[in-house]
Amino acid sequence: MLPPIVEIKPDVYFTGAFDPKIRTFDIIMKTANGSSYNSYVVRGSEGVAVMDTVKKEFSDDFFARLERVCEYDEIRYIVLHHLEPDHSGALIELMKRAPAAKLIISGRAVMMLKGIIKTDIEYELATTGTVISLGNKTIEFIMTPFLHWPDTMSSYLHEEKLLFSGDVFGSHYYDERLFDDLVGDFSYAFHYYYDHIMRPFKQYVLQALKLYEKFEIDLIAPLHGPILRSNPQGYIDKYARWSSEARFRKNEFGTKMLSVFYISSYENTHKMAEKITQGADEVEGIRASMYDLASLDESNMITLLEESDAILIGSPTINGDAVKPAWDLLSCMAYLERTGKIGATFGSYGWTGEAPEMLHERLKGLKFRLPLAPLKIKLIPTEEELKSCIEYGREVSEIAMGKMIEITL
Ligand code: FEO
């Protein structure tokens, strides 16, 4: 059966594919409602532009839709806003079928193109302000790097006030009714997508929103999930709010946030955490808090990590390793910006005590500033050792407040 023709604006068509069965995306995202790989066709008086393709396994669906709205020899441009395989999977085949089409990518995509496509192909570069004309349709490019790959860009179709936003404003939410005012309630999927894909790049989100401001936007066509035509500004406002709110909360307190996360088997690492927190909190300008990782769920971990200027992690050593809750905490950093955050590690141990060093190395890999060596105490801390924990916490706080120190490598 032929797929329906879906016109999202005059002479602009949906040519994407639906993936109702996908349950995990990019390893890190759960997709309870499936997803879609959105692609679009813009038809002008002087030719056609194809805006992105789909995941390779869904190529047949894509070409079936494409063939309903244009001939291959009408295609003048293929625009790839983002090279990730869920959008570039049908590119090579499309270029074979439409050999006269020019591929348009961003400058940052060049290095990635060969790695993904594994062959030499011709392309033209777009930058912010580059315009292509299809006669009565005009497309202007906007560079929106790191949303969520370095290569990503958006484009704006002037005559229809339509923003092709790339992954920005996407949702993993399958619903063939397609438009935001027709599909089910996808608000959680929209927020979840932001949290997992865009949140680590908040500063770039704010930069992109600034660039979008010059355009009057009547419809947003993202690369995943519903097309946003009812109150597009509402979605833009959500992104603006989510990308700014952590800083606003911090400003409310007017202090730097230091968080001590710990997990303890026999209370020894717990005692260290208490004393480190006590010492840290003695420094003016620091608000220190302590969290037992045994009772902290992932969404709280993410929020606390995001809002903390300094993070201390304590774990005992069990079988030569830090324990799972400590690693789970660090795995949350994949969702966050970490520029400039200070880190330190500690733990009580029985035999070998590798955990604090292992956590320290991981923080180093995550580009934390690590001013102090890990603090290790054998078994039950003595009074003297507990004093050293107070001093350790105080020292981290002072560094967070700007005390100069040689950074430990
Ligand atoms: Fe939807 Fe980043 O690919």
TrEMBL record:
<dbReference type="GO" id="GO:0016491">
    <property type="term" value="F:oxidoreductase activity"/>
</dbReference>
<protein>
    <submittedName>
        <fullName>Flavodoxin/nitric oxide synthase</fullName>
    </submittedName>
</protein>
<dbReference type="Pfam" id="PF00258">
    <property type="entry name" value="Flavodoxin_1"/>
</dbReference>
<comment type="similarity">
    <text>In the N-terminal section; belongs to the zinc metallo-hydrolase group 3 family.</text>
</comment>
<feature type="domain" description="Flavodoxin-like">
    <location>
        <begin position="258"/>
        <end position="397"/>
    </location>
</feature>
<dbReference type="GO" id="GO:0010181">
    <property type="term" value="F:FMN binding"/>
</dbReference>
<dbReference type="InterPro" id="IPR036866">
    <property type="entry name" value="RibonucZ/Hydroxyglut_hydro"/>
</dbReference>
<dbReference type="GO" id="GO:0046872">
    <property type="term" value="F:metal ion binding"/>
</dbReference>
<dbReference type="InterPro" id="IPR045761">
    <property type="entry name" value="ODP_dom"/>
</dbReference>
<dbReference type="InterPro" id="IPR001279">
    <property type="entry name" value="Metallo-B-lactamas"/>
</dbReference>
<dbReference type="InterPro" id="IPR016440">
    <property type="entry name" value="Rubredoxin-O_OxRdtase"/>
</dbReference>
<dbReference type="InterPro" id="IPR029039">
    <property type="entry name" value="Flavoprotein-like_sf"/>
</dbReference>
<dbReference type="InterPro" id="IPR008254">
    <property type="entry name" value="Flavodoxin/NO_synth"/>
</dbReference>
<dbReference type="GO" id="GO:0009055">
    <property type="term" value="F:electron transfer activity"/>
</dbReference>
<dbReference type="Pfam" id="PF19583">
    <property type="entry name" value="ODP"/>
</dbReference>
